[in-house]
Amino acid sequence: MRAARGSGSEPGPRHEHRYLVALGSNRRLPGIGGPRAVLDAAVAALSESGWRVVAVARLVASAPIGPSLRRYANGAVLIAGDRDPRATLRDLQRIETAFGRRRRGQQWRSRTLDLDIVLWSGGAWHGPHLTIPHPLFRDRDFVLRPAAQIAPHWRDPVTGRTLRQLAARHGRQS
Questions:
Q1: Which among 174, 153, 173 has a CA at the least distance from the CA of 164?
Q2: Residue 149 domain boundaries
């Protein structure tokens, strides 16, 4: 199921895809600053990597999940480009690595940068290392609130609900 017309999530020029990417950081990065500065720099890195940045959500603070003790800065960005989901994942992981992210050790530990594909304009997608929509996004207020700010009418291809509906529903259940 594709997003409803006028939702801001349909692609622009031919072969352009839109992606809703969740951003997170809870560690300072030398030369950049604290988590909020890291997320601002990550959005700039996306643009420098050839992505068109369509919208950026206000950042929110959240409690950590798992063993990390540091609070997170979280946000969301809507980007557009001609890359398929696999190429997009590789690009996001390259940016994470440039920001000091190391993918080893304990899951959900503190990190300088986390970039997760939440949705894409092509609907549902599944590959060996990537599932879209992100399997846990519906349960995470720190993803839903920023996502609903910038793409409120974008529909989850699994539930058919808009991001605004999912955020409101999660808010009532919390």
A1: 153
A2: 17-173
